[in-house]
Design a protein that fits this description.
The chain is of the alpha/beta class. Among the domains are: 177 residues, Alpha-Beta Complex (LDH C-terminal domain-like); 125 residues, no CATH class. The protein contains 18 helices and 16 strands. The strands form 3 sheets. Strands 1, 2, 3, 4, 5, 6, 7, 12, 14 and 15 form a 10-stranded mixed β-sheet that branches. Strands 8, 9, 10 and 11 form a 4-stranded antiparallel β-sheet that branches. The chain has a two-stranded parallel ribbon with strand order 13-16. Helix 6 links the parallel strand 6 and strand 7. InterPro entries: GH4_Enzyme_sf, Glyco_hydro_4, Glyco_hydro_4_C, Lactate_DH/Glyco_Ohase_4_C, NAD(P)-bd_dom_sf. It holds the Pfam family Glyco_hydro_4C. Belongs to the glycosyl hydrolase 4 family.
Length: 468
């Protein structure tokens, strides 16, 4: 961190700098904020994509008259991007969309449905096998080239990969950032406004106590404007449990909404079962429990299964949009995104304190879950660093579902980094989406999935698929 006149200037390394989603959100947020001076170094295995984003970033900076403060460059190597960085953002795609298609299609042949397939279940497991070695390489490089940097991981499976960062470089100052909890904060803001009789609150005005693991998060306390909102939420969940509720109906012609949004029925059902509010989107929550709960009848529960075919088409559209921006198309109007990275950076460098949900090793903030496991709770960002906020404990009936996931995620990181291929199949079999199909079929499915991944795997793991 250094000074240019009276302006504090930061070096931000963006790993996955050719991103079609998160990188442009950061560009817009930095330009909109107008108080941060930074050199954003974009590194991507696709150098041309990083160079394109560097040009787009400078367009954002220019429109906001921020070219004296913000500079974007595409870097030729991980070392060049990281050396001396104050902040590191990790936003990569582990493997390809073809790999993701196999992650979904192969389990489906064995009768396993997945709504996302990027966190748990067979798809999340195989994605982790692809991604852990990459995050390990990045963590080691951070330890060498910028050991004091703050590191924000945006890549899924978030719990596993944030754990990999800490396993490889225990002194790392990293957190996993996920926006899923915003969904329940928006719903609580709606309820608070209804109670007040006017639009007085946005989701940023809603305070929640978050506890759980990434994408299987819960809220057991909430307030807005000094009003306790949990009793009202629980009554609302019971009222709309049967049919679900959404402020704006899902337009069946809008593919993005149809595949990524929901009617809150899973959240409401979990609230009625366990007495705490499910915080993530229904399509994520559904994958952590047996398939018979929700995934077998996802249409009845009113959430979509996100097809990889749609993700591929959406990526093509985003590539076209990025190419248009690169050749002079109008930039989106200035407006802050829902991401918290800029607020977190400002808080860590002496700005206003920020409190929000993040993924960190458990040092006691989550009772009932193993020490060291990556858990999702609130944390306080300030000049003192990142300090987890004590969240308490999940209801006992819910804890017995969450704890095995947390233990499995930790064990998976350890097995991959140790090249302990013998440990992988038992872990794979223990997932609640996998175990019902039986040992022999699950073992064959595992071999099929490993063999189908086109992304590089450590040789000890790749050999598992060669026998398929």
């Amino acid at each position: 961190m250094h000074n240019k006149g009276s302006i504090s200037s930061f070096d931000i390394a963006y790993i996955g700098g050719g991103s079609l989603n998160w990188a442009t959100k950061l560009m817009g947020d930095l330009a909109f904020d107008g108080t941060i001076a930074a050199h954003i170094r974009l590194f991507d295995l696709d150098q041309a994509a990083a160079e394109r984003n560097a040009r787009i970033g400078m367009r954002y900076a220019g429109r906001a008259d921020q070219t004296e403060r913000l500079r974007y460059t595409a870097e030729p190597s991980l070392k060049a991007a990281l050396t001396g960085a104050d902040f590191v953002i990790i936003s990569i795609l582990p493997g390809s969309f073809d790999d993701m298609a196999h992650d979904i299609a192969i389990p489906e042949r064995y009768g396993i449905r997945q709504s996302v397939g990027d966190t748990v279940g067979p798809g999340g497991f195989i994605r982790a096998l692809r991604a852990i070695p990459e995050l390990a390489e990045i963590a080691a490089a951070i330890g060498t080239f910028c050991p004091k940097a703050y590191v924000c991981n945006l890549t899924n499976p978030m719990s596993v990969l944030t754990g990999a960062l800490y396993k490889v470089f225990p002194e790392i100052r990293a957190w996993g950032s996920c926006h899923e909890v915003i969904k329940i904060r928006k719903l609580l803001a709606f309820l608070a406004n209804r109670r007040r009789g006017e639009v007085a609150f946005g989701y940023r005005d809603v305070k929640v106590n978050v506890l759980g693991i990434n994408h299987f998060t819960f809220v057991d306390a909430a307030s807005a404007g000094g009003m306790d909102m949990m009793t009202e939420y629980m009554a609302f969940a019971r009222e709309h449990h049967a049919d679900g509720w959404r402020e704006n109906p899902i337009d069946p012609a809008d593919e993005h909404v149809r595949y990524f949004e929901d009617m809150n029925r899973v959240k409401f059902d979990l609230a009625c079962r366990f007495g705490v509010a499910g915080a993530a989107g229904d399509r994520h929550l559904a994958e952590f429990v047996p398939q018979s709960w929700y995934l077998d009848e996802n249409e009845r529960w009113k959430f979509g299964l996100t097809p990889v075919e749609y993700r591929i088409r959406e990526r093509t559209e985003k590539q076209a949009a990025a190419a248009a921006l690169d050749t002079g198309a109008a930039l989106p109007p200035p407006a802050p995104s829902e991401e918290a990275i800029v607020e977190q950076i400002k808080a860590l460098t002496g700005g206003p304190e920020h409190v929000g949900n993040v993924n960190l090793p458990n040092i006691g903030q989550m009772q009932g879950l193993p020490p060291g496991a990556i858990v999702e709770t609130n944390a306080r960002f300030s000049g003192l660093g990142i300090q987890p906020v004590h969240a308490g404990r999940l209801p006992a009936a819910l804890e017995v579902i969450v704890r095995p996931h947390a233990e499995r995620q930790t064990a998976l990181v350890e097995a991959v980094l140790a090249r302990d291929s013998a440990a992988l199949l038992p872990l794979f079999l223990s997932d609640p989406l996998v175990s019902p199909i039986g040992l022999d079929r699950a073992a064959q499915m595992f071999r099929d999935m490993v063999a189908a991944t086109t992304h590089r795997l450590p040789e000890a793991l790749a050999r598992l698929g060669k026998a398929a």
